[in-house]
Amino acid sequence: MKDLAEVLNDWEAVIGLEIHTELTTLKTKMFCSCPIEHGAEPNTHTCPVCLGMPGALPVPNKAAIESIVLAGLATNCEIEKHSMFYRKNYMYPDMAKNFQTTQGPVAFCMRGHLTLEVDGPGVEERHGIDDLSEGDTMENIVKTDYGYAAKVGITRIHMEEDAGKMIHVGGVDGRIAGADHSLVDYNRAGTPLIELVTEPDLRTPAEARLFMQELRSTLLTLGISDCSMESGSMRCDGNVSLRPRGSKTLGTKTELKNMNSFKNLHDGLAYEICRQAEVLESGGVIRQETRHYEPATKRTITMRVKETADDYRLFPEPDLAPYDLSDEFIESVRKKLPELPRQKKQRFMEDYGLTRDDSITISNDVELSEFLDKAMEIDSSLATQVSNTLINEVMAYLNQNNVTLGETKITPEGVVELCKLIDNDTISSKQGKTVFQEMVETGGAPSKIVEDKGMKQVSDTGLIEDVVKRIIDANPDKVEAYKNGKKGLSGFFIGQVMREMKGQANPKVVNKIVTDELEK
Ligand SMILES: [Zn+2]
Hints:
Layout: H1 4-10, E1 11-22, H2 62-74, E2 78-79, E3 82-83, E4 85-89, E5 99-103, E6 109-119, H3 122-125, E7 137-138, E8 141-143, E9 147-161, E10 165-169, E11 181-185, E12 192-198, H4 205-222, E13 234-244, E14 254-257, H5 262-281, E15 289-294, E16 299-305, H6 309-312, E17 315-316, E18 323-324, H7 327-334, H8 341-352, H9 356-363, H10 366-378, H11 383-401, H12 412-423, H13 429-442, H14 446-452, H15 461-474, H16 476-483, H17 490-500, H18 507-519
Parallel strand pairs: 14-15
Antiparallel strand pairs: 1-12, 1-13, 2-6, 3-18, 4-5, 4-17, 6-9, 7-8, 8-9, 9-12, 10-11, 13-14, 15-16
Bound molecules: zinc ion.
């Protein structure tokens, strides 16, 4: 099979995404007052409404409507004042009502967009970028200094409810094939979900991944979901079709499921694009079907041949009145909009002078952004040092230990103090790493740790000079080689000095004295 770059030379991929997000931060379900709780004893959070008992009537959750309007405003959607719910009919044991309550073509949020900033290796996946100069436009993209910006349309964000959870027992990997019986847990039935549908504006797997990342950090900032791709509270399906470069006709698309990480989303789409190219180039046709991505084998396999909207017999939900959102309601939600990641990124660059890359990394994380802002209130002159510590030390620690910042003993005061100690040469940056470790474990103040461990950095030139001279005298052959042109040997002398001084010498001072002495 050809690789992605080769395929994209001849073919244009047309990709659209459908992203489901559970509103996990709400207290109760969409149409009843059952609590939403992950990991609760199966079938303990149910009632006649979410079990579909005859005569039970749904009552919409106002907080859920607020959440979807918030999501719409944050993604530049127009808020549709008049919309309604429909019944999407199907029979499956995880849906006790035999229909899912969902919205039709007119949803609460319509016609939005997100602008993606594509940089790094992702730029190479977009065909024709190399031929553009900064500021040039092509379709929905603009060439920029970092790569390109792509405006991706959002068709709508609609509200629906989740089904229960099926557990297949006895099969391989919990799959239904080969199972001898199945269990149903209705705790999840009726959990509010929002589904975002994009326009088919995406052209590469890298753009699809970036869209998902941008949306996830936006929804996390809104605080309406924990957006866990791992546990499934945020799920992404992709539609992909190919057409020969230059053609405007859409090819037959397949729908991809089970892309439950950013990497799987990228790799699944990349595989599917290459697979379709191979089928088309050998004279075959693409079947409209749903395919399942298998991360272990990095392949997609047929799941089912696509059903159409007609099969579901969507019809208006008679138990729920059509919605009529007031201007006051929409404005009250707009007032709750927090600063969004893309706005934070811009502010970090302008106010703190951070690089674009660092600003993106920190602004995509709600906790790190708040932490940075607090640290900057304490001392804004150390912005770069604090941001480096956040990215190199703090994030690494959080990832390694799988904890959140709030669960650690790391404080803005501590990090600012640590940066100050390194900045004024009290300790070396290497010693800084040791102090950081100690700080994380004990929660102690960096200056106290430095004092207790006797870690102060030696910048006394007289003391360092003595050591340098001793080492130079002990290695006449290396001095000779240095003078004959092997300048790289200065590193040997610096290393020896640092070792002798147990890493406590100021590297800048050592460097200068070693060079001065060798050049004598
Ligand atoms: Zn219920």
